[in-house]
Amino acid sequence: ERQLRGEVLQETASVRSQFESQRLREERLRAKLDQVEQQAITEQGVVAHYDVLKNDVANARSLRDSLLKQQMETGVNSALAASNIRIVDRAEVPGGPSQPNVSTNLAVGAMLGALLAVAVTLMAEYFDSSFKSSEDVEKLLQLPTLGIIPRTDSERHRSSGRAKADVPDTPGGRQSDLVVHREPRSLIAEAFRSMRTSVLFSTPGAPPRVILLTSAGASEGKTFTSLNLATTLAAAGAQTLLIDADLRRPSVHRGFGLDNESGLSRYLAGQTTFDEAIRPVEVPNLTVLTAGPPPPNPAEMVGSTRMAELLEQLRERYEFVIIDSPPVLPVTDAVLLSREVDGVVLVVKGHDTPREMVKRARDQLALSSAHILGVLINSVSSNSFSGY
Question: Fewer CB within 10 Å, N- or C-terminus of the chain?
Fold first, then answer.
C-alpha cells in the first residue's frame, strides 16, 4: 500500500507538472495571439490611412488638371477678338435615343396582344358548336344530365378520336376501358357510380331494366360507357347482361379480352343457342353477349322479331340488360332497338360533339317513341370537369 501510494503521488505530481507546463504554453500562445491581433489592427489603420492619402492625391491631381485646362482656355479666349456670340445653353449628351421608345412600344404591344387574345377566344367560343356545360345540354335538348364522366391521362386512348376500325380485332385490345373494375377508387369510377344512381331513379316506380346506350356519331365513348355502366350495376350485386348490338363495328369483346367468333349475330341467324353465345367474364355478376361476325344485314337482324323475343326472355333472366348500339345518325339500328327497351341513354362527348348533331339524334329517337332517360356527358377534360 505504501508503494502504491507512492506511485500514485508520483503520477499525480507528473500530471500536475505536465498541466502546469501546458498552462504556461497556453498563456504564451494567448500573449502571442494578442500581439498578432494588435499588429493586425495597427496594419489596418495604416492601410486606411494609405487609402485616404491615395484619394487625396487623386483629388489633387484632378484639381490640378482642371486648373490647367481653365488656364489654357482663358489664354486662348484672351487671344481671340471680342464677339457678339454668347452661349445660351450648353449642349448635353442625351441619356438614350429619342426613337424608338421601347417602353411605349412594349405597352402598346402588350395591349394589342391582350386584345387579340380576347378576340380569338371570343371567336373560338362563337364558332364552337359543342356543349360547354350540363346546363347547356339540358337547355337545348330538354333532357336531364345523368352523369359527367371525366377524362384522365390513363384513359386518353379512348378520347384520341380514332375510329374503332383503328383498333386491331384481337383479344385484350381495350381492356384498360374497364376503369370501374380495375380502378374502383378513381374519380371516373365514382362518376359511373353516380350515373348508375341517376339511371335507376330516372323513371318513376321501377327502374329501367333494359337500357340502350347510343350516341349521335361515332367515337363518342358509348362502348366505354356501356362497359363501365354494366360493370357498376354488376358490382352492386345485380345479375347484369351486356349485349354488343353494334353488328357493324363491334368492340365490347375487346374490353374483356374475348374473341368475336360467336355472339348475337349467330344467335339471330339461328346458328347457335343463347347459352352457347353468352360469355362469362372476370367481373362478378356480369355476363357478355358479344356481337359476333358482322352480318350482311345488321339493321334487319336487330329489328327482327327474334331480337324482340330475346329481349323479352332476358327480362325474366337478368335484373339489368345493357345494350351497346351503333350511333343514331349514320344507321337506323339504334332507332329500331329503342322501341324494344325500357330507356335510352344518349352519350355526348364533351367539348366535341356538335349541338345540332345531338339534337337531330334526339329528334330521331323521339320520332320512334323511344323513352330517352337522359344524356351522359363523356370525356370531359380534368380542367373543365368542375365547370360542368
Answer: N
pLDDT band at 80 (very low <50, low <70, confident <90, very high): low
Q: How far apart are CA 186 and CA 179, in angstroms?
A: 8
pLDDT, one tens digit per residue, over 269-318 is 999 999 999 999 999 999 999 999 999 999 999 999 999 999 999 999 99
| Cα 258 from Cα 321, distance rounded (Å) | 19
Q: Given a cut of 70, is residue 101 above it in pLDDT?
A: yes
Its sign, for the CA torsion 194, 196, 200, 202, is positive
Asked if residues 301 and 269 have their Cβ atoms less than 8 Å apart, the reply is yes
Q: Cα(277)–Cα(267) distance, rounded to whole angstroms?
A: 7
Nearest CA-CA partner of 189 in 164, 223, 152:
152
Cell of 266: 349467330
- Residue recorded with cell 339511371: 199
H helices of 142-221, where?
179-182, 187-200
Q: Is the pLDDT confidence value at 167 over 70?
A: no
Question: Apex CA 213: angle with CA 212 and CA 214, to 5°?
Answer: 120
Q: Give this prediction's pTM.
A: 0.63
Q: Can you tell me whether residue 170 is helix, strand or coil?
A: coil
Report whether pLDDT(381) > 80.
no
Helical H runs in the chain?
A: 2-79, 102-127, 134-141, 179-182, 187-200, 222-235, 252-255, 264-268, 274-277, 298-302, 305-317, 333-338, 355-367
d(CA 108, CA 102): 10
Q: Which pLDDT does position 161 carry in this prediction? A: 41
Is 121's pLDDT higher than 80? no
pLDDT at res. 90: 80
Cα 358 versus chain centre, distance: 26
The answer for residues whose C-beta is within 8 angstroms of residue 208's C-beta and 6 or more apart is: 199, 200, 202, 341, 342, 343, 371, 373
What pLDDT, on the 0 to 100 scale, is given for residue 163? 40
Instruction: Give the three-class secondary structure for 146.
Output: strand
Three cell numbers, residue 262? 360467336
Q: Is residue 42 exposed (0-12), middle (13-18) or buried (19+ Cβ within 10 Å)?
A: exposed
Looking only at the bridges linking them, the beta strands covering 320-324 and 145-151 are unpaired
Residue 276 CB contacts under 8 Å (≥ 6 apart), including other chains: 262
